[in-house]
Amine oxidase domain-containing protein
Amino acid sequence: VESGISNKLFLAWNSPWWGSDKPLDLHIYWKNFNLPKEMDWVMSIVRCSSTPQRPNMVEMIVTGDASLTMEEMAPEKIIGHLIYFLKRVSKREDIPLPNFFHRSKWNSNPWTRGSYGSYLTTEGETERGIRSRRSLAPKIIDSRGR
């Protein structure tokens, strides 16, 4: 069995650029894939939110082949792409450069070579031939009929 791949990215600032009155929680649904080609990997970011423990930090999850691409990139390039991404999805131009950056590299780690879980993107579902989730819907009944 092959494990999936997803990685986390963390950016932090001295104070939240989105305002400190509420957490950042961006749900991203791409309807136009019109980023520069070298930034295609950011279209596989499935979650972007501030962390409860550090309200000035943003956590993102990137999945699949895009996650592998991100693992190979220089940190400065990733940060540039993420700032561009955040400006696009938040519709704000005043996002400063972060003073902290960290990424996981689960596939490159010789002790893991993958991650415990992954997400299926729209592209991933099409590639794997998943056209319906009906096979996931049936109820499972135990030996007592429950």
